Amino acid sequence: MSSRWRRVLSFIVVTFVLIAIWEGYKLIWLQMGWIRPVRPDNTTMPHVWDMIIELFRPVRRGGDLLILDLAARSFFTLREAFLGFVIGGIFGFALSVLFVRSTLLERSFMPYVVASQTIPIIAIAPMVVVWGGRLDFPQWLSVAVISAYLTFFPVAINTLRGLKSPDPTALELMRSYAAKPREVLWKLQVPSALPYIFTALKVSATASVIGALIGELPAGFGDGLGRALLTFSQQFGARSVKLYATVIVTALVGVIFVTVVTLVERKTLAAGSRDFEVELMTGRATG
Amino acid sequence: MSDSPVVRARNLGKTFGKGSDRVEALRGIDLDIESGEFVSLIGPSGCGKSTLLRLIGDLVPASSGELTVNGKSPQQARLDRDYGIVFQKATLLDWRTVTKNVELPLEIMDEEARSERAASMLDLVQLSDFAKHYPWQLSGGMQQRVAIARALAFEPSLLLMDEPFGALDEMTRELMQQEVLRLWQQTHTTVVFVTHSIPEAVFLSTRVIVMSARPGRITDRIETQLPYPRTVDTRESAAYYDKITEVRESLRRGDRQ
Lengths: 287, 257
Prior knowledge:
The complex is a heterodimer of chains A (287) and B (257). Chain A has helices at residues 3-32, 48-55, 66-101, 103-116, 121-134, 139-163, 168-176, 181-219, 225-234, 240-269. Chain A has 287 residues and is mostly helical. In chain A, helix 5 packs across helix 6. The radius of gyration of chain A is 23 Å and the shape is globular. Mean pLDDT of chain A is 90; it is low at 277-287. The termini of chain B are far apart. In chain B, strand 6 (158-162), helix 6 and strand 7 (190-195) form a beta-alpha-beta unit. A six-stranded mixed sheet of chain B has the order 5-6-7-3-8-9, sandwiched between helices. In chain B, strands 2-1-4 form a three-stranded antiparallel sheet. Chain B is of the alpha/beta class and 257 residues long. Chain B is globular, with a radius of gyration of 18 Å. At the A-B interface, helix 7 and helix 8 of A face strand 5 and helix 3 of B.
């Protein structure tokens, strides 16, 4: 059996084990009349198949099927998330390059970079939306900026570590060639940093989805997954399966995003394709 | 240029650190290395032999005295790419093939006909069959041969070697010594070779510079006077053993001083 099939099989097995635990808990707790830690009635813990069935019911009378509605919302949210991911990635990478060039810059700005991540995103999001409005930003751009706020940090921290990872002897070798800082960066430091960068991008991919979901709320977007999550959580008592179904779809969006990053990683880190042609980069600032 | 020495040091000194952490790595170094020489720097650890090599390569700045490389400041010589360097670690870039590793300095120096140059260098170190391999697919000795090919790819007039065979086993080491002598004779490069192995220094060099620690200084200069080409027979000759003994005793005297 090939390793790919083994991976798929083990994923399916784990899925069924998790479903079995969920349903088993329901069954045993109902039989025994236990109510701690959670009473497993159909509102707090609906059956897994009810969540799936809900996906194929209309959202509201005469409306689209829930799954079609959520697919459209997923696409909308993923687009904002991807834009935030790109903006945050570029910003994080640029920061790490500045920091690796100048210890002074790193020392003076790193505390603010760290502090930025201790401020809850729900406090930042409305500010960004208001400022974006003043600057006549389209709202999707404000949401992307909120998403970027979450994604730049892992990229900056990990890339910096990766740029610093080459052996000191390798740096001496580049010095012996009288290599320019730009050449040291693209021929030595960035290729060495790639494994670190991809680890960061996987964290950022999930963070960008969270950022987009939260950013949609103060932006007043009705078209994304964020609004659906908010609406369905308000209707939790009446129809909790809708929220559960939406949560599953949201998680899938994150998984798909991370999977795409992983595929790109595998292609990029394959032996021999980690080189950067500095010639293509001419016109960039040479240090 | 053949008149002036490749390396010329006068009263050269190097101090690391400040205050109570001050370490005098080198003091009063006077040294001339002529074009075409193969000079070994030998001494106990802490004698500053690697530091002296790094001063010549402008990898660290001197603290006092004079130093010229090819009649220029070490910095100018480095900027002119006058020397190639080989470290104890091969320091190959593991995402590049053997060929691409040899091409690295040529890319940075914007040289023409890189793949042809790399191919002829690999031919020179007898690794043509491994051109498309990656570093991790090679043995330690082969990796070091790639590093030497890379150092010679841009035809520098000076080759600096910092204990290049220190991490290799004895058999491989002897083969590599043979190899480096062959390259030296084919390319007419001046070589400065740091080692802590007495037999290695004697076998390779035209001249052995004996150094001593605390502070690092030159205590003796010994002409080996063994005829080239040097072979397995050289290793078994009485003259070779006599030279080894001479260097060993000189090292002991230097240590007692």
